[in-house]
Automatic annotation (TrEMBL), chains A, B:
Signal peptide: none
Gene encoding the protein: gmk
Name recorded for this polypeptide: Guanylate kinase
Boundaries of every Guanylate kinase-like domain copy: 5-184
Binding locations of ATP: G12, P13, S14, G15, V16, G17, K18, G19
EC class name: transferase
Described function: Essential for recycling GMP and indirectly, cGMP.
UniProt entry tagged with the keyword ATP-binding: yes
Annotated NCBIfam families: guanyl_kin
Highest taxon of source: Bacteria
Keyword entries, A-Z: ATP-binding, Cytoplasm, Kinase, Nucleotide-binding, Transferase
InterPro entries assigned: GK/Ca_channel_bsu, Guanylate_kin-like_dom, Guanylate_kinase, Guanylate_kinase_CS, P-loop_NTPase
Main location (coarse class): cytoplasm
Classification via SMART domains: GuKc
Length: 202, 202
């Protein structure tokens, strides 16, 4: 009998750098978890591979997965579905290995409802000005889009109260270290280990 | 306005090595907290100094502190009182600095009732055999006393469920590192930082 793995959910407002932090975590030596590849209906970008960057599916296939109850969470952004297939997550957790999800705020709340013992980490910009600069720096959006995104981010920061931890993404290596410490500490939380100790005394 | 400090309570069964871990934490570079010196009615051992190792008081003085509501927690062991003066703890927390208490299980439960937002860490032996060896290694107790202590430890391990974290004291430097990570992670918990972020958005 091994312990069940821990579900780690990394989320946060649009533009905060979730993907960058996640990629840095995957490259770090610490990396004692499996990353759960998301499913999407958007077209692959150059270099992206099915099953590695995303599971690329048609709209019809994705909607069938939803209908079959096979999605842990999903949401639609700009006419495309994004979501987390349930099966891989459960198999990995059952094998005693931690699973990392990097998902949007709406999806994270769906996971919270289904997996209350997960670790929910909210990645946050140092302040909204930094978020604005980052969005402008991308150079892909006009001012109206940027302002809309900032208002959305303010709303999403209010959603922080549904998370366990808030990690500032001031510098990616620092954010990664904070998240790794959270993962280590969470493994020491009494509700996660009490049964092991009860067995030790008996 | 600075944030209030965090109360860190290190406890665990008799003989597990709480004092050794605490001393190692005080000598570590991390040491971003104040240690709260306990008060006792036992006599100073050679080399122990009042206000550093303990506040040494008479039985009458200690009982007056209890009567005046000046003790955060206290207990009587082998005819001597041990406890934590409330004033220093509150002053340090109000100044925005973390406070470390290293206390017995009974005292920790008194603190838990008064300070539910503290971080309660239970130091535990790798197994009861290790505890037994450690007690025998001390060479100060007979077999009956040792067996009694082990039964007591089994009871105290059951008390682990009242703590937030369980840290195995297999090696002191490892235990210290685990506790330091817990302290760092706890500072990122949403209920501790949400107000700061609410202010940021407004």
């Amino acid at each position: 009998m091994h312990e069940r793995g821990m579900l780690i959910v990394l989320s946060g407002p649009s533009g905060v750098g979730k993907g960058t932090v996640r990629q840095a975590m995957l490259q770090d030596d610490f990396r004692d978890f499996q990353y759960s590849v998301s499913m999407t209906t958007r077209k692959p970008r150059p270099g992206e591979k099915d099953g590695i960057d995303y599971y690329f599916r048609t709209k019809e296939q994705f909607e069938q997965e939803i209908a079959d109850g096979q999605m842990l969470e999903y949401a639609k952004y700009v006419d495309n579905y994004y979501g987390t297939p349930l099966k891989y997550v459960n198999q990995t957790l059952d094998a005693g290995r931690d699973v990392l999800l990097e998902i949007e705020v709406k999806g994270a709340m769906q996971v919270r409802a289904k997996c209350p013992d997960g670790v929910f980490i909210f990645l946050t910009p140092p302040d909204l000005v930094a978020l604005k600069h980052r969005l402008v720096g991308r150079g892909t959006d006009d001012i109206a889009t940027i302002n809309k995104r900032i208002q959305q981010a303010a709303q999403e920061i209010k959603m922080m109260e549904n998370y366990d931890y808030a990690v500032v993404n001031d510098e990616v290596p620092l954010a990664v270290k904070r998240i790794e410490r959270i993962i280590e500490s969470e493994h020491l939380r009494v509700p996660r280990v009490i049964d092991k100790y009860r067995n030790m005394v008996n």
